[in-house]
Automatic annotation (TrEMBL):
The chain crosses the membrane at residues 6-27, 48-73, 85-104, 150-177. Residues 93-229 form the Fatty acid hydroxylase domain. It is found in: Membrane. GO terms for molecular function: iron ion binding; oxidoreductase activity. Keywords: Membrane, Transmembrane, Transmembrane helix. One of its GO terms (biological process) is lipid biosynthetic process. This is Fatty acid hydroxylase superfamily protein. The keyword Acetylation does not apply. One of its GO terms (cellular component) is membrane. The keyword Membrane applies.
Amino acid sequence: MEKWIVQYQDICRLLIFIFFFLLLATIEKKYGIWRWADKRSVRWTTHLSLALISKVTIRLIFPFLAVTTAWIAQQKGIGYFNQNPTLWIIEVILSMVFLDLVMYTQHLMMHRIKAFWRVHRVHHMDRHLDVSTGIRFHPIEEMFTMGFKLLAVAFIGAPVIAVFLYEILLNVMTMFVHMNVYIQPRFDKVLRLFMITPNMHRIHHSDYLKETNSNYGFCLSIWDKLFGTYTYRSISGDNKIYIGLEEFRYPQFKTLPNMLLVPFNPRRLKVRHRKRVPSRMKS
Ligand SMILES: [Zn+2]
């Protein structure tokens, strides 16, 4: 089974990605609450191109990725669980929870370290959120994320299946939390007890620094609550959050070449609270 996963991980992940991307995009087309400022086809073309460049870059730089790292670590007896085996299911669950904590930490670092924030701005300067924002990451950020993930996988000695499942979960959740949907507060409150919701992550994309620097989680909501980075409600009201970065509001930053150049752009590196123009809701 594990050998099969290592061998066919790419095609499996690609097919699952396409399925969920189309499924979530169909849902948000029907239930999308904020008006799209740009055509979805244009956004998809730009974001999918950026994602493709990022994936090709990490493929060229890393000889193997997370799932294969887990396989090699297992063969060589590297990592905590490979040296201290316990019940298989416990290893799988704890590894996935650990990887989620690592991703929370990585995201926090992207915001708190100035050099990383330069790169992460490409994701945050999107002035609209939809499922395609979930794949909008600069190649340098993807490189950093992968490096961080490989170290974590080797450290914990995660089972191959745990890494494979977590990679899929992270990919799907990243698209889900950026969806152009608004979940009814009563239901959202229940979901937030254990997972990140689009309402919760939308606050993270606020232009208000205090809110941008909060709600870092992608899958489990516990980390933000545990480490004091949880914002329950936006001061603007959850329906009126100003999305994006004011300094990159100009149309030229919507092009792929300019997005790729953003990390080298000296524009103000700090996001400040300013007069906000909320996204327009569909009538
Ligand atoms: Zn962020």
